[in-house]
Design goal:
The protein is α/β, with parallel strands linked by helices. Helix content is 37%, strand content 15%. The strands form three sheets. Strands 4-10-9-8-7-5-6 form a seven-stranded mixed β-sheet, sandwiched between helices. The protein is globular, with a radius of gyration of 22 Å. The structure holds pyridoxal-5'-phosphate (PLP). The site of pyridoxal-5'-phosphate (PLP) has 15 residues, from helix 5.
Amino acid sequence: MTTSPSPIDLPAIRRMDAHVVHPWESFDKPNASRTVLGVGDGAYVFDAKGNRLLDGPGGMWCVNAGHGQQTIVDAIHQQAAQLSYTSPWSHPTESAARLADRLAAVAPGDLDHVFYATGGSTAVDSALRFMMFYNNVLDRPEKKHIISRHDAYHGSTYLAAAVSGKSRDKSWLDTRLDTVHFISSPNPYRRPEGMSVDAFKQFLIKELEDKIQEVGPDKVGAFIAEPILASGGVIVPPPGYHAACLEICRRHDIIYISDEVVTGFGRLGHWYASEPVFDITPDIIISAKGLTSGYIPLSCVIISDRLIQAVSGDSDRGSVFSNGFTYSGHPVACAAGIANMEVFESQELLENAREVGPYMQTQLRTLSDLPIVGDIRGMGLMGCVECVVSQESREPLELDYEVGSRIDQHCQALGLLVRPLINMCVMSPPLCITREQVDEMVSILREGIVRTMEDLHKEGVTTFD
Ligand SMILES: Cc1ncc(COP(=O)(O)O)c(C=O)c1O
């Protein structure tokens, strides 16, 4: 493996990159110092100068199979050469059909109808639009309200953004919809002072029931929830929370949408985490990212047979689910999806995630002795180190916007990419990561945090011993 296929002209890329509007950009202060990456290999990436970096965030929680998987590359090449595109309105393709068959087989319960979209956001929109369609067909036009949670992230199209609950993302864009309602973030670390985790769970469950009663059970159509809130800071709800929420939804005939864009495809050691990890069989699962390990965009909504049957046959009233995309079930993306599943199986990536995930959790928790570290949480190959001024106040640092980025900068110099999230460092490495690579990750992260503490100390921001 070479560290660069051809020399990278860094100044030229930086000059041309000024034309690119990156996600979450400040137009006044565009970030011109992003690291340019040239090559990926397994759990590593190489920057333009050839420096090797462990890919802590796995791209954007998506390079689950790891970089440079030739089976996926070949599948993309072969499908593009054979038939690059055909309309999903008019023609089934072998790759879309075969992938749907495999997805139906690994999805829980009777979830066996696969609607393809292009990314997490368009899949979220499609799931919510299906809920609206479903209730229209059942002649319940009022039952369209959606309940979501603070700290949730479901995407960047209007509807997906409207059901997202990260307050900092709402400052400058219109995301309001009067049919969307929020309940508390199920973050045990930020639970009210003096409340036990179990009491906190009871509070959250009662809050969902109360919100349904406030809006009206005949008006609430869907509850949308990530099993673990990913971009909100790897928030793992109290045990039993999801099952209790599902029970409430079933009682009020509310569609439970499990957004497994991040938790699916092995991040928690299973194809989908809802059933094996959280003991729920939702009505709809949303899948993206690891579905193709980020090699090419693809997402899907997997809908239960129960819901589909309810709007079929005598009940369908001549309805049509008029929702779809030019690239729904793109043959090349679906070929990548099939190859991705083959790689998972032949390289036993789910098994590796189940083995190395708990080890990563244990090793990350060794950082708790660092005074700046407030909370370390996660599950499987999803981890988060949250930094705070003092353990007592649990308030984010005054410089909280910068602390994750500061740690990331130090870590990059030492050979590790971090996903900085305000005052947090998020880790979601490729599933092929080894125990030795976890050790490397945690020791670099420790050094990056120590160096950041030293910087803050020198600047007089904190007074850690
Ligand atoms: C849980 C979840 N849902 C949906 C999305 C949106 O996915 P995309 O960025 O592919 O549109 C994301 C993106 O990070 C996500 O984390």
